[in-house]
Description:
By secondary structure, the protein is of the alpha+beta class. It has one domain: C8orf32 fold, CATH 3.10.620. It has helices at 21-30, 37-51, 64-70, 75-88, 111-116, 144-151, 200-204, 221-231, and strands spanning 53-54, 72-73, 93-101, 120-130, 133-136, 161-163, 166-168, 190-197. The termini are far apart.
Amino acid sequence: MEHEHLQHFLNETPLLDFHNASFYTLNENHRWDKLPDTEKIQQIYEFVRDNIAYQFPKKRIQTASGILADGWGFSLSKSILLMALLRLVHIPCRFHGFLIKKEFLKGIPDDKLYRKIPELLVHGWVEALKDDHWIILEGATLPEKFIQKQLDKIPVKKGEYNGYGLGVHELENLLYRWTGKHTYIQRNAILRDFSVFNNPDDFLSLFGKELKSLRKYYPARRHIRKLNKMMDI
């Protein structure tokens, strides 16, 4: 499938600001643009997964360059950054938006804080085009080190599980490592599917021009610092 027929999956947007100088510097350091497409996807996926900490920013919506500068983000943030980097090296990609049940966080915050978190949280993953197939890259949400730390807290590592940041069908068969196939880490907690969008900007327009209604699907600013401290490994 020729890329010229997929330009809407390669465009820059206000959130996917991959012409920012920081992205060119990052690419110069890693030379992703010189790799075959499969290796581009793998290396960028693993970079975002493991080098961007899993935290909730105080600012709900950030540009890709802002996320890269901060070095942390939740699923939406990491998806925005992942898409920007993929498009920088001409890998077509799209955004898939959801609302996710807060049960995937159970065990990280104490009970008092957990009760104050909204019942549903905004969630999203990236789908990259590889060999004419869309590959789901949800596994980029959680760093491998974070996942291993949470698994140490779970006594029975088998079967369906929601908690400690995970929302998975089979604990014994986690699908977050790159194999060229779909990756997942929180899909078991998904409640509402908004389907796919050319970019996250279009998805977020669902929540209103000024994103005011997104507040009810995101932890309150007064709780974020405490929640992030509990997630910090």
